[in-house]
Design goal:
Blueprint lengths: L5 E4 L12 H11 L9 E5 H7 L3 E3 L7 H10 L3 H9 L1 E8 L2 E6 L4 E3 L13 E3 L5 H16 L4 E10 L2 E12 L5 E2 L15 E2 L1 H10 L10 E5 L24
Parallel strand pairs: 2-8
Antiparallel strand pairs: 1-12, 2-12, 3-7, 4-5, 5-6, 8-9, 10-11
Length: 251
């Protein structure tokens, strides 16, 4: 049998607000589509609705910008409150240039503006932060889905990142539960019988990117059901996708 993969955008989810039961909303939306979760499914959920449900929203009216934030904002015509908020979520500034802050966040993600934005916040004064612990968010949703449906699934929290040396954005995995985010191919052989020594595939990012095709930014599809991918079950962390400092040639 030829391998195949099915991706289904989950429609009908409402605008999520603080305290909403994401697992319940997703199960309900799937039922309205005459679908239900099965063992071995993968559910990708965009970071934005996870952050909203967890109350990771900040009013810019309450932010007092520091002198450094004011200096950067003045140079690049940005809102100093937004710059200050980014700096508060940052443990290391990688680059400040061209109106962009590339920073390292507490969990270890290196991304633009600490992953903070205002898209789909429904207010010009509200900024949305990344989940405080996206792995924990994924684990909680997975556990609740198990209780509701009995299905053993993997859950990925995804966000949109840029990439050095390549233009355009793509979805990546920032939180995971029930699936190993990496596929270690070292020690196996290629079609020519040569042993692979360095190949480790970021399968969680590949799954996230595939799901991103069904989650347009102006659309209303914040979650995708993926069926047919044979993944390795594991109690892992998306932080495994972060290259260790000792082997990072660009740090």
């Amino acid at each position: 049998m030829m391998p195949s993969l099915t991706l289904t955008g989950i429609e009908g989810l409402p605008m999520v607000k603080r305290g909403d039961d994401l697992a319940g909303l997703i199960v309900g939306a799937l039922a309205a589509m005459s679908m239900q979760l099965q063992n071995g499914d993968i559910l990708t959920v965009c970071q934005k609705i996870v952050s909203k449900a967890e109350g990771r929203l900040v009013s810019l009216k309450e932010i007092e910008p520091s002198p450094l934030a004011q200096q950067f904002a003045a140079r690049w015509d940005k809102d100093p409150r937004e710059v200050e908020l980014v700096m508060r979520q940052t443990i290391r500034i990688v680059r400040m240039d061209n109106a962009v802050l590339i920073v390292e966040t507490g969990p270890g993600w290196v991304c633009a503006n600490a992953g903070i934005d205002q898209s789909n916040s429904l207010s010009d004064d509200i900024a949305i932060l990344l989940p405080e612990d996206a792995d924990a968010s994924a684990a909680r949703i997975r556990g609740e889905l198990k209780q509701m449906t009995g299905a053993e699934v993997a859950v990925l929290i995804t966000d949109t990142f840029g990439r050095p040396w390549r233009d355009g954005l793509t979805e990546v995995c920032i939180g995971i539960a029930g699936m190993d985010p990496l596929q270690d191919m070292r020690g196996t052989t290629d079609l020519g019988g040569r042993e692979l020594h360095h190949t480790v595939i970021a399968v969680a990012d590949e799954v996230a990117a595939a799901a991103g095709l069904l989650m347009p930014k102006a659309g209303a599809v914040p979650a995708v059901l993926i069926r047919g991918y044979q993944f390795k079950s594991a109690e892992a962390s998306a932080k495994a996708l972060i290259r260790p400092a000792a082997s990072d040639l660009f740090r």
